[in-house]
Design brief:
Elements (H helix, E strand, L loop, with lengths): L1 E9 L5 E10 L9 H10 L10 E7 L5 E9 L9 H10 L4 E7 L9 H17 L2 E8 L5 E3 H9 L4
Parallel strand pairs: 1-4, 5-6
Antiparallel strand pairs: 1-2, 3-4, 3-5, 6-7
Length: 162
């Protein structure tokens, strides 16, 4: 799988444009099919389990279910990080994503979502529904490839799926 790290910058006309920052060939997986796959990529490629501050990433996915871009949304401090939902939606629209996953780490290594994690997830979910972009999951990365998936632990049970 090719991991493409993207960013959005303003061009000379002050309009947003996509910029490719880095490409990494990741041979361990050919596609993302689970929270475990996301945790493996984010730990192996972006070292999310070793960060000294919280960081939030966005994985943009095309209509065939393949990741088309990885964006670093923000860096925070030791126990929180702010997410700009509007800016995130701009990134998704610019790369023509049909769905997405957000990922962040907990510096403590614990994977249990905080109240703020749950509030932000609901806000992102609501915005994604309005925009017509599929919000597939919110993954929290902990120590040693441990992760918490909102889809696997909450949403699938709410929908009656396992």
């Amino acid at each position: 799988m090719r991991i493409v790290k993207l960013n959005v910058l303003m061009n000379k006309e002050k309009l947003p444009m996509l910029v490719k920052e880095q490409t990494v060939l990741y041979k361990n997986l050919s596609e993302i099919t689970s929270g475990e796959d996301v945790a493996q990529i984010m730990t192996d490629v972006f070292f999310m389990d070793r960060k000294i501050t919280e960081e939030i990433y966005l994985i943009a996915i095309n209509n065939r279910g393949k990741p088309i871009g990885f964006f670093q949304l923000n860096k925070g401090c030791i126990d929180n990080c702010i997410i700009d939902v509007r800016g995130m939606m701009i990134m998704l629209l610019l790369c023509n994503a049909s769905s997405f996953i957000i990922v962040h780490n907990h510096v403590s290594g614990e994977i249990i979502p905080s109240k703020d994690d749950c509030k932000v997830t609901e806000r992102v979910k609501h915005t994604a529904e309005i925009m017509g972009i599929g919000f597939l999951d919110h993954i929290i990365i902990g120590d040693n490839y441990q992760y918490f998936s909102f889809y696997e632990n909450i949403w699938s049970k709410e929908d009656g799926r396992t």
